[in-house]
Automatic annotation (TrEMBL):
InterPro entries: Glyco_hydro_43 (IPR006710), Glyco_hydro_beta-prop_sf (IPR023296), Glycosyl_Hydrlase_43_Enz (IPR052176). The record marks D140 as: Important for catalytic activity, responsible for pKa modulation of the active site Glu and correct orientation of both the proton donor and substrate. Belongs to the glycosyl hydrolase 43 family. It comes from Sunxiuqinia dokdonensis. This is Beta-xylosidase. SUPFAM superfamilies: Arabinanase/levansucrase/invertase (SSF75005). One of its GO terms (biological process) is xylan catabolic process. The active site is at D29 (proton acceptor), E204 (proton donor). Keywords: Carbohydrate metabolism, Glycosidase, Hydrolase, Polysaccharide degradation, Signal, Xylan degradation. Pfam families: Glyco_hydro_43. Residues 1-19 form the signal peptide.
Amino acid sequence: MKFITICSILFVAAMQLAAQEKREIFFADPTIYVENGKYYLTGTKGARDPLGFAVLESKDLKTWSSPSGSNDSLYMILNRGDQTFGTGGFWAPQLFKVNDSYYLTYTANEQTVLARSQSLLGPYRQKEVAAIDGSEKNIDSFLFKDDDGKYYLYHVRFNRGNYLWVAEFDLEKGKIRPGTLKKCFDQTEPWEATPNFESAPILEGPTVIRLLDKYYLFYSANHFKNIDYSVGYAVSDSPYGPWVKQADSPILHRSMVGENGSGHGDLFEGQDGQLYYVYHVHFNQEQVAPRRTRIVPVIKAWDPRKALYRFRVDGEKVIVPVLSEK
């Protein structure tokens, strides 16, 4: 009888786990935008139709659904061919608002792109269908607004590897300001190139914030297929650098959150005032895709000796976002 009871418990637990996995969210390179008491999540949803970007909303970061009033199981905010650049490879979006307009920057056809909408929920379109800079391949765009009103485009360019670059950005024209393009840094740290997956140098997935006149650049390193894909940060007195990589990097790694391939996401402040990082992880120990979405609290602490903030994640409080049951 005891054996039958144990088997029943294990069966129920397995069924519950399977049910949760079916409800899990599979956005890679995710980002979360916060407005009017709600969270909005989007990211790379892969090559399945329709191509473009979908969005989910939540009030608590844990349970997500299509936006209120929508009957669509997949609410698209940008669609391929709908006055937008790109035929494939829709990756790594970022949502932000300027005055009364909303913007979506993203990657398609290995080019960075900027689209605009009068509504947070889109549709996001372009007046002129074009990439930001078609002169060469560039991906993983992140637009940062400094306190003086200037915008900077952080992104990735290729040269026998992926490297982070920055340039001042003209938001009205949707273009990089000539003569301002600068490389951020090279691959230099052991954690940025572990032997678990051989690859060219890879530094990608930038997010930038400013705190007390210091600039903090968070980025991912290693190939995304590497189990050691992870997140570190560098600090500068200028949006252009020079950047000083911090010795406590990586701050997000499988050893901290218990899942492989943890990286490439975005920082955001929750409605509770807590700082969070949304990111993706591998599907399981043996399989990379489809990548699962995760959210983790970030602890920010002032270091008076260095006169800057230190960051670490609270790996005991990882949130597994799931779709609401209908």
